[in-house]
Amino acid sequence: MSQEKRKVAIIGGGITGLTAAYYMQKEAKEKDYPLEVILIEATHRLGGKIQTVRKNGFIIERGPDSFLARKKSFGLLAEDLGISDQLVSNATGQAYILVNDGLYPIPGGSVMGVPTQISPFVTSGLFSWSGKFRAAGDFILPKSSVNGDQSVGQFLRRRFGGEVVENLIEPLLAGIYSGDIDKMSLQATFPQFYKLEQEHRSLIIGSKKTAPKQPVQKSKEGIFRTFKNGLETIVEAIEEQLNPGTVMKGVRVKRFERVGDKVNLFLNNDSEMLLDQLIIATPHLAALPLFEEHGLMTEFHDMPATSVATVAMAFKEEAVKQEKEGTGFLVSRNSDYSITACTWTHRKWPTTTPDGHVLLRGFVGRPGDESAVELSDSELEKVVLSDLRKTMKIDQNPLFSVVTRWKNASPQYVVGHKEKVAKAKKEIQEQFPMIKLAGSSYEGLGLPDCVDQGKAAVGEVLEELFMNTIK
């Protein structure tokens, strides 16, 4: 190939940036593109929020613990890396909602909290009879007349009333986004709800009609996947397969400027880098300072990001007596607890825990009430342990704990988010057509969503650089 050699940099070594770097180098090698790809990470490790602690036979996640299997891109990435044989499924089991000191099973047939089976919903102790009757209004209410975006909370309260939303749907949805559903954008987070209402009028009827049919004789398999040795397995595999000398750790981009049809990076090690294309795959809070001098992404200055903490605690099996069988619980916001959820990790992911032991993971911090995240490690452990002792008998202290804080780490997709992202990308394209924006702050914060964005950015870059060879 006689084309001029091109240079691309990717800022941000989280899963989006790692995906972009891996697939960019893979495509360049397979199609013999004259391309140099550099990954720049400000910290001294790759993976972003994917962090696994391997200690005393335990596998403990500091960040996400799995990915949704039906979103194929993450599993396909594992296949491309040659590590799909290390994937394991979660153990299936009952999950609960904690309301007024009681653990109530999530009603069977719930799809993101929306019932598709009437009997489990009617017999559930999660709601009063008046709450159940109000939720039945979904069968007769007309379609929403709201034009444009609206909050998830506004939409769902209109369909089901406050009690069902607060005791079932809100804990499930807020747990995914660590957000306030009364500010969360319906179109950016759960557009399928709006689509179901428009097509079927009733969310219950629509969810029932569109729910995937499970083969009767097929053994039930969990809907989540992770790696036997922890989620960081995929970070380690990508780093190992990236070309030698193409990853810069502990290097921060201070600013950039346009030079003709290229972009020049100024790094904190006093070096510069002239590029044909640039992918910025950092959270919006890290990207904002780079765009500020160019008057871009101004709408993202008021985009909130919540802080959360997790406390993983390891026990001897005899120290914990659990009456309930299952994989964990979520906490209704009306309950007097500091924790927002607890995973019974040893049950959900049996490969994480040595025989004869128990592993519990408590979550702390919700929008508008994040003060607990600032507590010391020992104080956080006491808070979580105190809350867990209200739900099960724990008569010993943990063998050890792993406390993790994520400050301003969960971007909030508030009402109007999609329009905000589209406007920012359009303005960037006009001033810096060689810059692509990707990552959890923009078009999905789940692991497969981030992989999708990284791959999409690669496709755009390669098409622009080698347009004549990609058809």
Automatic annotation (TrEMBL):
Q: What Enzyme Commission number does this protein have?
A: 1.3.3.15
Which reaction is this enzyme known to catalyze?
coproporphyrinogen III + 3 O2 = coproporphyrin III + 3 H2O2
* Localisation per UniProt entry: Cytoplasm
Q: Which superkingdom is the protein from? A: Bacteria
Keywords, sorted A to Z: Cytoplasm, FAD, Flavoprotein, Heme biosynthesis, Oxidoreductase
Q: Name one GO biological process term.
A: heme biosynthetic process
Biological pathway: Porphyrin-containing compound metabolism; protoheme biosynthesis
Any single Gene Ontology cellular-component annotation: cytoplasm
Q: Which GO terms describe its molecular function?
A: oxygen-dependent protoporphyrinogen oxidase activity
Q: Which Pfam families match?
A: Amino_oxidase
Q: Which residues form the Amine oxidase domain?
A: 15-462
Question: Cofactors per UniProt?
Answer: FAD
Provide the leader sequence positions.
none
The entry assigns this protein to a family as follows: Belongs to the protoporphyrinogen/coproporphyrinogen oxidase family. Coproporphyrinogen III oxidase subfamily.
Q: What does this protein do?
A: Involved in coproporphyrin-dependent heme b biosynthesis. Catalyzes the oxidation of coproporphyrinogen III to coproporphyrin III.
Q: Which NCBIfam families match?
A: PRK11883.1-5, proto_IX_ox
Q: What is this protein called?
A: Coproporphyrinogen III oxidase
